[in-house]
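Encode chain A's predicted structure.
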Amino acid sequence: DMKEVPRFHRIVWNFPCTAISHGQDGQNTAMEANKELVRRFVHNARHLLEDNGEIHMLHKTKPPYNQWKLEEVATEKCEDDTVVEYQGRVVLDKFTLSPYTPRKALDRKSFPCHDACTFIFGISRGKNLGHCSPSSIPDAYVTSGGDDDVSVLVPVTRAVIEMIREKHLHQLSTQKQTSNKKRNNRS
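Encoded structure for chain A:
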């Protein structure tokens, strides 16, 4: 008997980057390798997500990192019935992750992340195809635009954190109720 693969409602990857010698992580010379790393991560992570789950990637937004075009690479067409949709990004306030310190892949030195955001991607598949779950980003903050559209950036305040927390707790409660109903129906 094979065990059922566990499913998650969120998968988070902080600062994806290939390991490059001499502390030059993420530079233009390794851009294609880093894009492929992100593609492979999304391809594999989507199989471990519950229906309507999310992938969160913390990533820097200044050159050369913005040239990775994370929003495009992560949402490239999948070969099955899964849709990965960019839902927005939230400015990283590293004090909300205390005592977390970002580290380079090889030399383990820390690096500044004052320009980082959490990029959020929704997943839908099967009967929910094209209908990703409501994003973790509170509705009042969902906007679209390019790199020069500062309205895409969300300031992290206590109120925003509480709104996101409440949204997650509500979604978790709904998922548990659905799971319990399914379990009861099998009995």
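The CA atoms of residues 60 and 115 lie 6 Å apart.
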